[in-house]
Design a protein that fits this description.
2 copies of one chain form a homodimer. The first copy, chain A, is an all-alpha fold. Chain A has 17 helices and 2 strands. Chains A, B: Keywords: Transferase.
Chain lengths: 350, 350
């Protein structure tokens, strides 16, 4: 069975949604009790961010995100023969680390909306959101440190190293925003995306492998699988940031363009050497892009080949991910859940 | 030998400065190599914050702070019979955690000056300072997670729990600033100071005990010693924030009053029920305090008894600290370094 065959099977199976549901069912009690252990105001900010309460503290039925990272932890542990439930603290930890980055990224990027709701810093103020993010990172590492499972020490080390990489990615992302349209290369941009997105998806898979007692090589292959799938995910996410349906994304159409974001398809277009790329650079030189400019910019990215490139690159990254997965989990049957998840993140409708 | 005798001896010995020097000598190589492992821009922000480089990246001869927390780790380990050098990663970890809080607190409090230099966020911008702080917290936990010492897992758990407490303290501190002059009780203020300052000094001592292989009770007594000494330290620090010599503090005189800070002596004055307390409340109701107002406010704190109360409370907390220390380390000879440090932090000239 080739990688492509397996991807096909996973797609037909369409089990990712059920898998994510199951993950939330298993992980949410741990996640929620961990967050609820926070004192007073920190708890309220964190619970609002997760969608569990409204700004006034009353219960909400919102959802804490898709739980892709926790699902990767459980699926990786399961693929290597462990009981996924044994890795539940690892799953909660990566979700906490992910949400720590969201809280801080929203501050740094001055984003006002996430998951169709006002971001935490706009509701509670920057200081409280910043400190709640700090607490969430500390919780992520505490939930592992308190875990009696023999893998927890290695998992802590891996997650802490991953958070350093996430920070480097976020810092690079901010630095790129301040540079001119031709001053960011596509390679720099891919390296930033790997640090900002790939690293945590890789760490999620690596944590699952560690909880399954895997050896160094399997852990490394799992990490590489997650990283490559993460890059594919980021490429798709960047496409959604330009052409996504606001109904699905919870953000206005073309939000990334309006924010002058140097996302992967944009940088591909800017560095394409095409007339459409030059057009895009002229649009990005304007301090403010109105609705029509955003539409023109999206069209320029497409004509400069940025959209096609991103789609092809996402496919290529997925192929690499599947190769790494076959190294980590030679039995295709055992890899089914991980395949479903990888397919899911790269085939989201937009 | 009574606690008072011992305190007297430590003071005469005056060994704290030498102890802090020795600590920096032992811990700085670990601290520096850990910080230098950060990628690019994060490294520069962190190194600037520690005083190792100027804003342009050229080497500086500044000092990374007094290293009180690392000294507590090493002294606690030594007091319980361990080789202090074995706890060097624990010492580096608490210093990283401390500096993470400084980086973020400066952002949240909009402080422009620290250690006689512009704060990192004023030099590098809020986003880079925020993310560098995040990375420093991750490093603190990574330096423990990577430590092969058998105590490192328990140390990680303790430090992660402590950081949650630090966050709660910082959040409470911010919340108090927004409340009216009579809306913060002295008890709330003491609880906040315990979380914001006592917790990390307590955790430093507890980490030292863990590295010495101490039992639960000794670790708890060491934690309590550090917490009480930490409260004494905070009380003195608050006095310095009002009456400190700018030459020593690196901050303008009365900086805390100008910032309407509800520090412990201020809250003691505000809740004193005295005419001077009411005067202080009127001054604090002004949106801006000029130089003369700051002088009047300091005088009002003093006349309302805030200064005397803080000094007496600091003495009381020190007595409790010494009691806890005698529980953790029954041999007074072995406790000498910890005593020197506790005396040092509560007898700083201002």
């Amino acid at each position: 069975m080739t990688s492509t065959d397996r991807a096909g099977t996973a797609e037909e199976g369409g089990g990712a949604a059920a898998l994510l549901d199951r993950t939330r069912h298993v992980v949410n009690p741990q996640l929620r009790s961990t967050v609820e252990s926070l004192p007073g105001s920190l708890r309220r900010v964190a619970m609002y961010h997760f969608g569990w309460v409204h700004a006034d503290g009353s219960p909400a039925t919102g959802q804490a995100g898709k739980a892709i990272r926790p699902a990767l932890v459980l699926a990786a542990a399961g693929a290597l023969g462990a009981d996924p439930a044994a890795a539940v603290r690892g799953a909660a930890a990566v979700e906490l680390a992910h949400n720590f980055t969201l809280l801080h990224d929203d501050i740094v990027d001055e984003d006002a909306t996430r998951r169709n709701r006002p971001t935490a810093w706009t509701v509670f103020g920057m200081p409280d959101a910043l400190v709640a993010g700090d607490a969430m990172l500390a919780l992520a590492l505490r939930v592992l440190a308190d875990d009696p499972h023999p893998a927890s020490a290695a998992a802590s080390a891996r997650l802490a190293a991953c958070v350093v990489e996430l920070c480097a990615g976020q810092q690079a992302d901010c630095a790129f925003e301040g540079r001119g349209p031709h001053d960011v290369s596509l390679d720099e941009c891919l390296a930033m995306a790997e640090a900002k997105t790939g690293a945590l998806l890789g760490a999620s898979c690596a944590l699952g492998a560690l909880y399954a007692g895997a050896g160094e090589e399997e852990v490394a292959a799992m990490d590489a699988f997650g990283r490559e799938a993460g890059l594919a995910f980021q490429l798709i996410d960047d496409l959604i940031g330009i052409w996504g349906d606001p109904e699905h994304t919870g953000k206005p159409a073309g939000a990334d363009l309006a924010a002058h974001k140097k996302s992967l398809p944009v940088v591909a277009a800017l560095t394409s050497g095409t007339p459409a790329g030059a057009e895009l650079a002229r649009l990005y030189a304007q301090p403010v892009l109105d609705e029509k400019d955003v539409w023109l910019a999206a069209d320029a990215v497409e004509r400069a080949g940025g959209r096609d490139w991103a789609q092809a690159e996402a496919g290529d990254r997925m192929a690499r991910a599947l190769h790494q997965l076959s190294r980590a989990v030679p039995d295709p049957g055992a890899a089914g859940d991980l395949l479903s998840l990888a397919e899911f993140v790269t085939r989201r409708t937009y």
